[in-house]
Amino acid sequence: MLPDGITYKTLPISVAEKIIADVSTGIYRTPAAAIKELLANAYDADATAVSISTGAPHFAELVVRDNGSGMSLVRFLEIMQHIGGSWKRISQPDGLSPLYKRPLIGRIGIGLLAVAQLGQRFYVSSSLRGENTRFLAEVDLSHFHKDDAALRSMINQDGADSDSDDRIEIGLVRYVDGLPEKESSHFTVITVPDPKQGLISEMYGELRRAIGAEATYSIDAPAPSFEDLVSVVQRHKRADSVLDGYFYVMWELGLLAPVRYLGAGAFIEDAISIEGLGNIHLEEPKHFDVTMDGYEIRRPIRFPNPVAASYGGPPPKLYPLSFEGVVAGRRLAYEGYIYVQKPHIDPVELQGLQIRIRGVGIGPFDRTWMGYPFDEGIKFGQIMGEIFVNDGLESSLNIDRASFRETDPHYLTVRAKIWEILRTEVFPDFKSRQEAYRKTVQRGRLEAKQLRLAQVLERAPEPIGASPRTEVRDRLEMVPRRQVSGNSSVAHEDTVHISGERQRIVEVIQGEVVVDDREFRDATRELKVHERQMVLNICAIMASYGLWDDLDEKKARDLLSALAMAVAQ
Q: If pLDDT is split at 50, 70 and 90, which confidence band does 282 have?
């Protein structure tokens, strides 16, 4: 603590405009993440349809148009003058959109700046529902991208603050209002006339060439439909290895945007049953369609994929997730699931956990499962999950809306619940389900082998109608075996059947092969269970062909030992 009674000097903290430029243009990880913010704005404006035109294959102009309620010029200028303040939450204190009562997605008031990542200059045109005019505005942020921007400061040369309320200019808006429009029309159109070269490079992409892969679908070889695009991804380990940058943006947008699942939902049971499917609820936005260059964008999650559907292992399983309560004085409510399939989740981009707040994906799937502290090896590649947050967690969002502040109580609560179900239910269930499956497979194989053996025995000279078995039998007369050394006889501890007596070690009794249990155990004590069964089966085949009939006890015992030795090789 500074001492009292002393006059202090002050120095304002200055921030180079380059930092503000980075915030406005670099907070979104990918083009899809930036476009997602524009879709979220349209969703909040009660739009039912959004069309995205990229101008492919040359990408000379990017246009995003929605049929939402639109906005007035006054509202637009307020947004431009108060970047970082969410007017939606102020104008709609109940947190719902006016028309369809959708839970509002926008919160921190920087979504429109997502356009700055797509281009340095853009146009906004909008007509408010019920009005017969529209406005047109040009937003220019280009001076933030000059090489000397980092050298500028937020203070004047004389050291005084450039703005008393600590706000600085980040661009220039030119606008015109009152342009005629149909009264029945309502929309917002955002146009980027000169997309950034980085965006164009992203659309073409070089990753596939770098890893020696060739894109199945590309700008030069387009996908017939979005469903075809998803189908080819399902059959490969990585989406970015079979899609070029353009179609990968489209696929990623489907994961992040508030759109419906492809088909009837995320899970299909056509090929294999999914345990627990009836216990989960999947949230899907209603009355909101998104197209990109004519492709209908959907959430590209469909399991099991073809490899898993034909894999010989435990069937896929779903574990439901849910929570509702008050945490740190704020309500937190979510639903979701964890999905398990073998041999692995394809593509790898879907391995991990994705959290959706009000239908919008917060970043890519987290393969660490919020930093799960235990090493589960390959099991992490066999699970994925989604959480649909209906209330709460928004305060933990970082400015990029793709990650969380990990000290927030809501985040900590969600993480603790996820870790708990992974540690106490999902991962322990792996072992028990695999063991149960292994035993089932073994039983099936044994039954199949027994059936084939029975068919062979039924065709033998002495047909056998049942599986061979062992039982404890009464021994024949035994005499001590003596070891002769010189002129003296020394009694040996073992006994032996009298030589010449017909053997009873392996017999056919009422059409069934019965083997003396004690003799069998003595001969096969070094063998594994399946090897013992093999010896038993060989004994049965030999009996059905009468190969034991003329043997005495000693020869039968020696033969049984020889069979065990042969199987053990």
A: confident
